[in-house]
Automatic annotation (TrEMBL):
One of its GO terms (biological process) is mRNA catabolic process. It comes from Dichelobacter nodosus. Keywords: Nucleotidyltransferase, RNA-binding, Transferase. It holds the Pfam family RNase_PH_C. PROSITE patterns: KH_TYPE_1, S1. Residues 185-239 form the S1 motif domain. The gene is pnpA. It comes from the Bacteria. SMART domains: KH, S1. One of its GO terms (cellular component) is cytosol. This is Polynucleotide phosphorylase. Gene3D superfamilies: GHMP Kinase, N-terminal domain, K Homology domain, type 1, Nucleic acid-binding proteins. InterPro entries: ExoRNase_PH_dom2, ExoRNase_PH_dom2_sf, KH_dom, KH_dom_type_1, KH_dom_type_1_sf, NA-bd_OB-fold, PNPase, PNPase/RNase_PH_dom_sf. One of its GO terms (molecular function) is polyribonucleotide nucleotidyltransferase activity.
Length: 251
């Protein structure tokens, strides 16, 4: 099982996209010795380990050995035994590596979606307060919602540590939405936050709201906004005017 874990770990690292230079496999060698005669066993089982004279674990790549571990039950072994054991271990290792190569030929080009991620981005320093929020409420909400850890420096650099790709992307998206400037002509997914007699207020980006006038709600005359919209309803809106003081308007 220990040598299987070497092979499995190597495959897992490559599948996860970790830049491993070369795959590594492991094999356990055994020994039966009687007088001057001996036999080297390759890929020993439990009984061969228990009843034999040696448990010699060899791990390595196709070009070299990376780790050795030996238990012996006799007074010592000869150079000849060691040479033969290493030679047979090399042959066995090459065979295992060939089988592993059939499953995964090399390191994945991209990290697994489930691999931990560390990413960075930069925002306008004037927007730092918006991302942090009052008393840290906004950034705390983002970290709790995405399960990430976020650090913001005074120069606007943002560091995101996440457990997987989706969490990192989600945190980045939320931050980008907060610092984004409204784009005239763009269609947004918005949520109705307040209904009035003259229209409805909608949130279309975090911390950003706008008004859709009653005359712009439908392509027909609307007498009561409440006949068409309700608070909490999600709708698509098109931004056609944005003014710093007056706010944004939609149709």
């Amino acid at each position: 099982s220990s040598m299987a874990s070497v092979c499995g770990s190597s495959l897992a690292l490559m599948d996860a996209g970790v830049p491993v230079q070369t795959p590594v496999a492991g094999i356990a060698m055994g020994l039966i010795k009687e007088g001057d005669e001996f036999a080297i066993l390759t890929d020993i089982l439990g009984d061969e380990d228990h009843l034999g004279d040696m448990d010699f674990k060899v791990a390595g790549s196709a070009t070299g050995v990376t780790a050795l571990q030996m238990d012996i039950k006799i007074n010592g072994i000869t150079e000849e035994i060691m040479r033969q054991a290493l030679s047979q271990a090399h042959e066995g290792r090459l065979h295992i590596l060939e089988v592993m190569n059939q499953a995964i030929a090399g390191t994945a080009r991209e990290l697994s979606d489930y691999a931990p991620r560390f990413s960075s981005m930069r925002i306008d320093t004037e927007k730092i307060k918006d991302v942090i929020g009052k008393g840290g409420a906004t950034i705390r909400s983002i970290t709790e919602q995405t399960g990430t850890t976020i650090e913001i420096e005074d120069d606007g650099s943002v560091k995101i540590a996440a457990t997987d790709k989706a969490a990192a992307a989600n945190a980045r998206r939320l931050i980008e939405e907060i610092v984004a400037e409204p784009e005239i002509g763009r269609i947004y997914d918005a949520k109705v936050t307040k209904i009035t007699d003259f229209g409805a207020f909608l949130q279309f980006l975090p911390g950003k709201e706008g008004l859709v006038h009653i005359s712009q709600i439908a392509d027909y005359r609307v007498n009561d906004v409440r006949d068409e919209l309700t608070e909490g309803q999600e709708v698509k809106v098109k931004l056609w005017k944005s003014m710093p003081r007056a706010g944004s308007t939609f149709n």
